[in-house]
């Protein structure tokens, strides 16, 4: 893919986020204020980390271990991001890793052929089109047999609608209590609920699309995964995607000191509090063995 096409895809993905920032600026303080900002950022961090620490690193890749109570709490936080039940999310992601950027990858941008139109189709498919496209359904028995035997995960998946609704109810109630008004409750629903879901969704989808199109490759892993600094920060470390594809079970995606990885920091903090154990991180020897030649 040419540099021009990479830049076009970058612009297409970034415009929605810049638009949200512009809306916040224009609405301040009419329809947006400190309470709305706090609820937006707080719910974004809670549910976003629920996806990155929970759905991804705990449930999908078993990058660390925790007890049943923390498993449930992290699973609930991830479910409030409204990206689907845990079992389905994990199955699709494991399938993605097994077939990364090949025919059976559910959301690769590189399986639609050459040419400008097909490249744009691939970027759309990887970002969100795959969610509504007709395709082969992921086989749960093949990809998540371990989770199908986990009573906590099965329960969380079956009760997913409750947690999705809770993710809207919490900011609504907090907005009303903080401002002591129905208007505050409505703004809590809009900014801490609906806009927050929009942002978390597009940041997550950008890892699927942008991080297989635009960025750098530090390790050889047989696909087009890329390290993307923008997604690295906004997605709490998930944007160091080439690192992740090289070492899928690693709890740490930001493998260099300067690569910000808030999700890993949370996991380390959990370990210090006695809430996480058996954290997986690749050894220096393994890192060196896969590093690309300069």
Number of helical regions: 14
Query: What proportion of the residues form beta strands (DSSP E)?
Result: under 5%
pLDDT under 50 segments (min length 5)? Answer: none
- Shape estimate: globular
Radius of gyration of CA atoms, rounded to a whole number = 19 Å
Summarize the biggest pleated sheet.
Answer: none
Q: Could you report the average pLDDT, rounded to the nearest whole number?
A: 92
Number of strands: 0
The helix/strand order is HHHHHHHHHHHHHH
Classification by helices and strands: mainly alpha
What is the end-to-end distance? 21 Å
Please estimate the helix content.
55-70%
Characterise the protein shown here:
With 294 residues, the chain is mainly α. Helix content is 62%, strand content 0%. It has helices at residues 3-27, 34-60, 68-79, 86-98, 116-127, 140-143, 145-148, 151-158, 160-179, 182-209, 229-234, 241-246, 262-272, 284-290. Helix 3 (68-79) packs parallel to helix 8 and helix 9 packs across helix 10 (182-209). The two termini are 21 Å apart.
Secondary structure: elements and pairs:
Blueprint: H1 3-27, H2 34-60, H3 68-79, H4 86-98, H5 116-127, H6 140-143, H7 145-148, H8 151-158, H9 160-179, H10 182-209, H11 229-234, H12 241-246, H13 262-272, H14 284-290
Helix pairs in contact: 2-3, 2-4, 2-9, 2-10, 3-8, 5-10, 9-10
């Amino acid at each position: 893919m040419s540099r021009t096409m990479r830049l076009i895809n970058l612009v297409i993905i970034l415009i929605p986020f810049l638009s949200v920032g512009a809306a916040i600026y224009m609405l301040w303080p009419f329809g947006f204020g400190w309470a709305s900002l706090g609820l937006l950022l707080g719910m974004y961090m809670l549910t976003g980390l629920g996806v990155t620490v929970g759905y991804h690193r705990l449930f999908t890749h078993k990058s660390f271990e925790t007890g049943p109570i923390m498993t449930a709490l992290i699973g609930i936080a991830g479910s409030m991001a409204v990206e689907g039940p845990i079992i389905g999310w994990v199955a699709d992601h494991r399938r993605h890793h097994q077939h990364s950027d090949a025919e059976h990858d559910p959301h690769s941008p590189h399986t639609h052929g050459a040419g400008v139109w097909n490249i744009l189709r691939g970027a759309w498919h990887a970002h969100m089109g795959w969610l509504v496209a007709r395709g082969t359904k992921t086989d749960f028995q093949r990809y998540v047999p371990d989770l199908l035997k986990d009573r906590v995960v099965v329960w969380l998946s079956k009760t997913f609608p409750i947690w999705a609704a809770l993710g809207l109810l919490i900011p609504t109630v907090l907005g009303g209590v903080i401002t002591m008004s129905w208007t505050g409750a409505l703004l809590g629903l809009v900014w801490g609920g609906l806009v927050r879901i929009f942002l978390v969704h597009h940041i997550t989808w950008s890892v699927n699309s942008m991080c297989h199109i635009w960025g750098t490759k530090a390790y050889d892993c047989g696909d087009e995964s890329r390290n993307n600094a923008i997604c690295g920060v906004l997605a709490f470390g998930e944007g160091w995607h080439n690192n992740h594809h090289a070492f899928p079970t690693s709890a740490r995606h930001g493998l260099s000191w300067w690569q910000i990885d808030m999700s890993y920091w949370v996991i380390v903090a959990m370990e210090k509090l006695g809430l996480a154990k058996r954290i997986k991180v690749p050894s220096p020897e393994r890192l060196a063995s896969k590093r690309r030649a300069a």
